[in-house]
């Protein structure tokens, strides 16, 4: 039992930090522009594929640094020449634009890399055992993923709270007109933040690609859970996104690890009364648990755990 709790906690925190790497950028974009970017998970997928393509040509480490920059540049271009043009027509056209962009990116990925999973592997320099606990080994690459996510969180927090650029960005979140009157180029700040948000998603894709499956459907698989994170944490709240990411990561990981049903817990009599429902295990319903949490949050606290605006 202690082994199950220890490794489920490690994996849950790791998964949560991976979610936060994407949710942080999406949260900043929503705070500044009021846009829920449905294509955000597609930038995560692009990061994985660009990382794969660069790694097979010149190595993993160049891809680790170059791929997020390329994805960030694509995100900045999308904001400048796409999203900014439809912004004046209201939120619905913005949502439709990002929704359509997600399909375009998925089709382009299938066109260039095919529909089968890419052979994106863990680099040899990180393909070893980090430590052994309870006679179970823990891969070094997972520790690398965790440390990268923590470093990103610390860096992002330091930029937003300790630098002049961060202060301007935070001011633009709440008082864009005042920031513009002080002489700052607010549209350029929007483009910068959108690009940085896309780059963070791309970085998540680069490090998650070798550990998970790099395939054209990876954005569709992770996209919905990403919106659960930002709604549960609170739309526009960076600290809320962090807490919600860890919470959902832990909840889903522990749920997958628990192979128990109501019959196992309360006995055959309860199981007989419930029929087939009594034999359903927690692991089987694990994929829907975050969405149940989402529904409960929307019912009892629509602003989310830390948010201030209505979801």
Please tell me about this protein's structure.
With 311 residues, the chain is mostly helical. The protein has one domain (2-300): ABC transporter involved in vitamin B12 uptake, BtuC, CATH 1.10.3470. Helices cover 74% and strands 3% of the residues. The chain is built from 14 helices and 2 strands. It has helices spanning 2-33, 40-58, 60-87, 91-113, 140-162, 164-174, 176-181, 186-208, 218-233, 238-257, 262-266, 268-274, 282-285, 289-300; strands at 129-133, 136-139. Strands 1-2 form a two-stranded antiparallel ribbon. Strand 1 (129-133) and strand 2 (136-139) form a beta hairpin. The longest helix has 32 residues, at 2-33. The radius of gyration is 21 Å and the shape is globular. It starts with a helix and ends in an 11-residue tail after the last helix. The model has no long low-confidence stretch (mean pLDDT 82).
The CATH topology label is ABC transporter involved in vitamin B12 uptake, BtuC
Spatial ordering of strands, largest sheet? 1-2
Briefly, what CATH class? Mainly Alpha
What is the overall pLDDT average? 82
Number of DSSP E strands: 2
**CATH architecture tag:** Orthogonal Bundle
Condensed summary:
This protein is 74% helix and 3% strand. With 311 residues, the chain is an all-alpha fold.
Question: Layout of helices and strands, plus pairs?
Answer:
Blueprint: H1 2-33, H2 40-58, H3 60-87, H4 91-113, E1 129-133, E2 136-139, H5 140-162, H6 164-174, H7 176-181, H8 186-208, H9 218-233, H10 238-257, H11 262-266, H12 268-274, H13 282-285, H14 289-300
Antiparallel strand pairs: 1-2
Helix pairs in contact: 1-5, 1-6, 1-8, 1-9, 1-10, 2-3, 2-4, 2-8, 2-9, 3-4, 3-8, 5-6, 5-8, 9-10, 9-14
């Amino acid at each position: 039992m202690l082994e199950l709790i220890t490794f489920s906690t490690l994996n849950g925190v790791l998964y949560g930090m991976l979610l936060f790497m994407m949710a942080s950028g999406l949260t900043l974009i929503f705070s500044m522009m009021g846009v829920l970017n449905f294509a955000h998970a597609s930038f995560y997928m692009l990061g994985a594929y660009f990382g794969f393509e660069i790694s097979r040509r010149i190595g993993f480490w160049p891809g680790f640094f170059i791929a997020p920059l390329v994805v960030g540049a694509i995100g900045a271009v999308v904001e400048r020449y796409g999203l900014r043009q439809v912004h004046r027509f209201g939120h619905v056209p913005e949502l439709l634009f990002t929704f359509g962009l997600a399909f375009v990116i998925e089709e382009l990925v299938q066109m260039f890399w095919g529909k089968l999973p890419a052979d994106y592997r863990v680099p040899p320099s990180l393909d070893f055992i980090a430590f052994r606990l309870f006679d179970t080994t823990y891969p070094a690459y997972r520790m690398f993923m965790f440390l990268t996510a923590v470093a990103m969180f610390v860096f992002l927090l330091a930029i937003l709270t300790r630098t002049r650029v961060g202060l301007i960005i935070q001011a633009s979140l709440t008082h864009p007109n005042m920031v513009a009157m002080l002489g700052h180029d607010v549209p350029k700040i929007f483009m910068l933040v959108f690009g940085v948000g896309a780059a963070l998603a791309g970085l998540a894709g680069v490090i998650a690609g070798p550990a998970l499956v790099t395939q054209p459907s990876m954005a569709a698989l992770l996209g919905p859970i990403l919106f659960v994170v930002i709604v549960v944490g609170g739309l526009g709240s960076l600290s809320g996104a962090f807490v919600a990411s860890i919470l959902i990561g832990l909840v889903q990981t522990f749920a997958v690890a628990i192979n128990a049903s109501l019959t196992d817990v309360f006995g055959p009599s309860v199981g007989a009364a419930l029929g087939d429902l009594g034999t359903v295990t927690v692991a089987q319903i694990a994929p829907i648990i975050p969405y149940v949490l989402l529904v409960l949050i929307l019912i009892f606290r629509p602003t989310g755990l830390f948010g201030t605006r209505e979801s």
